[in-house]
């Protein structure tokens, strides 16, 4: 055996021993998760809540904080994300509805938020995601709410207004679009298909690189990839994963007009999320039509030093020229300071709906 072979054998023996220890510990952790499930269902409780986003956020934050290994914090957190995902599946398999088909950015964000032991349930519209959760076909739903270059996703906003579902988590995804097709050359492409948002995000690029091509919006990018699989004159805009899944050639990468392209997704469900120590609260209000009414409401937060991270206005679907505001603030609705502010906001609003409090994402 050469010295190199000897060195490799020695270090691999060390790795084998470490893996054995890790495996024993993961097994012990899984037993603890089973005990947690027993406690949650004690006394025949039928409405036990197994998925606890606040606890998951705390675990992942602690992993990142104590990480002083050679692995980056994010990589370490991802490993623990997977361990917890398997532990949760042992307690109860969790089904999450998302805008499919498989390979969509929504699918990628389901895996990012819940890990790969989740039962990912693709549906064909954002409305259907909400419906699946309302009807109990899925435990949770995951929907895009805002993109850094294209703005808000209206159908998600409409459903958040319409349904009684709560927001229980937030996950952000960096979006990098690829152009993919059965064809290998731009010249063969007659039409570009993608979700409206993706077409908007790549508008300039399409004009510059495929000036003669038609453009058609379809329900999702992954559906576009599926269509391109069946027709070589089509090119889809979708993720690298979608190209793999639908066996398409990637003609171009990073075709988004603004490279800092992020989409924020929310987890919606029926449960209320407990405080995690670093949370956001989201609400919808509409104000009375009088001078200073909005300022009056916003002061409820500012005078208590509550940080508002987002305010978006949109026309109300009820009354022409009436506006509703989607507001995000830092804090949990049960924090004394925020609770007081929210109570005051409610009294000053013509319409008030609390969408929920959820952990600031550690991933
Ligand atoms: O602490 C709990 O409530 C658990 O169920 C355990 C656990 C974990 O594996 O750490 C698993 C699933 C929950 O979403 C949160 C945490």
TrEMBL record:
All copies of domain Chorismate mutase, residue ranges: 2-95
Enzyme nomenclature, EC number: 4.2.1.51, 5.4.99.5
Record Pfam families: ACT (PF01842), CM_2 (PF01817), PDT (PF00800)
Domain Prephenate dehydratase, chain residue ranges per copy: 95-270
Record carries keyword Ribonucleoprotein: no
Residues of the site described as Essential for prephenate dehydratase activity: 263
Function description: Catalyzes the Claisen rearrangement of chorismate to prephenate and the decarboxylation/dehydration of prephenate to phenylpyruvate.
Name of protein: Bifunctional chorismate mutase/prephenate dehydratase
Species the sequence originates in: Thiomicrorhabdus sediminis
PANTHER family in the cross-refs: PREPHENATE DEHYDRATASE P PROTEIN (PTHR21022), PREPHENATE DEHYDRATASE-RELATED (PTHR21022:SF19)
Pathway: Metabolic intermediate biosynthesis; prephenate biosynthesis; prephenate from chorismate: step 1/1; Amino-acid biosynthesis; L-phenylalanine biosynthesis; phenylpyruvate from prephenate: step 1/1
Coiled coil: 1-28
Location in or out of the cell: Cytoplasm
Domain ACT span(s) in chain numbering: 282-359
Top-level lineage group: Bacteria
GO terms (BP aspect): chorismate metabolic process; L-phenylalanine biosynthetic process
Keywords: Amino-acid biosynthesis, Aromatic amino acid biosynthesis, Coiled coil, Cytoplasm, Isomerase, Lyase, Multifunctional enzyme, Phenylalanine biosynthesis
NCBIfam families noted in UniProt: CM_P2, PRK11898.1
Gene Ontology terms, MF aspect: chorismate mutase activity; prephenate dehydratase activity
GO cellular component: cytoplasm
Taxon lineage: Bacteria, Pseudomonadati, Pseudomonadota, Gammaproteobacteria, Thiotrichales
Catalysis: reaction(s): prephenate + H(+) = 3-phenylpyruvate + CO2 + H2O; chorismate = prephenate
